[in-house]
Amino acid sequence: MESLEWSKLPFGYHKTKVNVRCFYRDGKWSEPEISDSEYLPIHISATSLHYGQAAFEGLKAYRGVKGDVRLFRWQENAARLRSSARGLFMPEVPDDLFFTCVKTAVLENIDYLPPYGTGATLYIRPLLIGIGPEIGVKPANEYAFIVFVTPVGPYFKEGFNPVKIAIVRDSDRAAPLGTGNIKVGGNYAASLRGMLKAHEAGYSAAMYLDSKYKKFIDEIGAANFFGIKSNTYVTPYSSSILPSITNKSLQVLAKDLGMKVEVRPTPFEELPTFEEVGACGTAAIITPIGEIVDLDTGEKFIFCPDGKPGKYSKMLYEKLMGIQFGTEEDKFNWITVIG
Ligand code: PLP
Ligand code: COI
Known about the structure:
The chain is α+β, with helices and mostly antiparallel strands.
């Protein structure tokens, strides 16, 4: 195997040894197969290609401080994939199949699991797509469930340092009663316009407001939003937000640290009242936000004036990473050791 500079890895695709695949035909899932191909031959009329019958998940394997191989709350990812499957009329992947495929994909590619202390992790990407041919708009009769892995570094090049975010108003990633609350490919295609607009203006990611009133904070790119004030962790409630497993975990950790937690619609006018704000997700972990600009009005909200993450964000980041890498007690039973 080639040698990798673990601490310099970007968040990107890197070929590994194998991936794991199962197929749904005649109403049942096949046994998982291990493949060394990065390609999937697919019918030109597959529903995933035309009509967006495609959902995915994102979780990580961590090399623990004691050398063990750790998954974080994989059951939550399995449950969310089932919810995405229901949302797009695809067959659900049962927990045991999800776990077998994830575990196999990690252990078969164990040489690609970054060592402890490098800042890198093994990102796991389960993918569920319609592969049966249709031309009328209807659910496919065949599906593929694929799990591949790729070693990754930080999602934002800034790492655990404040990033700059731009509020984008002239495109929406999801509709109020659409698919924002499930993890489906179309949401990400729809988010590209806002993301590129933010990048062109020199910002790391777009903040999306609710698409109906353009008043409440929805999400930040591929991450949830949180704000902290008066010892309270505040995170938006909205029907078009993807329920983040990281966010859910931070709410538990915040309570455990003696903070209050509020999950409620969060108007963007509230931004100046927060002492700290951040983005959270599997890829983003906790990314502190130093500046939010409204691209339409030019209005700017500044946080982290000393250029450093705030104390609550740091505390939550350290607790979460501590549990993931095994330097903190796994008080809430979030970790599954697979090797
Ligand atoms: N929001 C969106 C749109 C995402 O794509 C992700 C990434 O999965 C998240 C939030 C964070 O979710 P999680 O913490 O489960 O990774
Ligand atoms: C994650 O945080 O796992 C994500 O899915 C982000 C991804 C879309 C790059």
